[in-house]
Amino acid sequence: SISDLKLCDKLIKRLGILSSNETIEDMTTKDIKCLIVNGLIGMLMVLRKTNGGNERKAFLELAKHHLLEFIEQIESYEVIQVNERSKYQGPLSTIKNQAIRREGKIIQYKLEKELQFKLNEYKTRKEEKNRSNLHSTNHRSTRTLDNEEEEEEGEREVYTTWLKFLYLKSYQEINSIDQELDLLGTSSQMESIPHRSKSTEKDATEAEDLSWKLDQLSTKSGPLIGPTGKILRPFTILPSSKSFTSATDRIRLRSEVFRPDWNLPTMTIDEYLDEQESMGNFLKGGGPAQAEEETDGERVKREAEDDNLNGEEMAEGLRKKAIEWDEFTDTHRKGEGNMMNRG
């Protein structure tokens, strides 16, 4: 699509469709579409995938060139009045005051939403008109000169709105391109810094490892200390077996049980289980004992069978409950409560 747009740009320049002596009021509706070409080329080149930073940098510079050319055309043909251009441009990069920059971005954002709303409104209006023409029963042409002029005026307004929207987006893209070019320039400078080769780094690492290398101590049997006093294998100093008594043995065993970093028990296991049971962390019930117990429903039926006043009241309650359930099933279909309000 970029190549097709570039071909259109060449043909427009070769045929001289656009004249620098005209304004948008002097141009025909068909010629206004030619102003969009450079803006679309710049937008698409920003989105193009590239391999490596150098290729990306080249495409960004070309995209910026086309966007600047598009902006120059819009201002030359007076598509946007001079006193309104600052709203489309947004805050300039030279402005350091954050409050002023934020206010400029807010104005630009509101203007962008307004233009998008107009374009969507034009699109909806055109779709409704196409549907009405499609379902029309009158196949004869009923278009008049007034209708044609009205359609041309609406089409001209759509193209003008598109140009204003692309003019605003071009300034946003140029700002993003400048930031990305700065990052690419910084990364290229980092790549130009000379680095040590891998072999040099490996030799330096090995030399450093050798300087910190420790002697291997033998863990097997053999002399403990060499003639020069050098320790030849690891050892552990233990108390003499001759000095062991019952008291020292008790102290040693106690020191092995009660260490400073060990937590001593604060309750027995039975106390812990009782506390958990009082907190309700244990489930109760179940098993064959509970299966043999009489349920509430069985108890009510049994009491209803008794030949006394309480039994008669229980039987009457069961009868009323059965009647209410029959009435409910007659007026409510099965599964009606799970139909999610569907008929």
Automatic annotation (TrEMBL):
Biological process annotations from GO: regulation of dephosphorylation; regulation of signal transduction
Coiled coil (UniProt feature): none
GO molecular function, one term: protein phosphatase 2A binding
GO cellular component: cytosol
Acidic residues: compositionally biased ranges: 305-315
Start and end residues of each stretch annotated as Disordered: 126-153, 284-323
Protein name as it appears in the record: TAP42-like protein
Organism: Melampsora larici-populina (strain 98AG31 / pathotype 3-4-7)
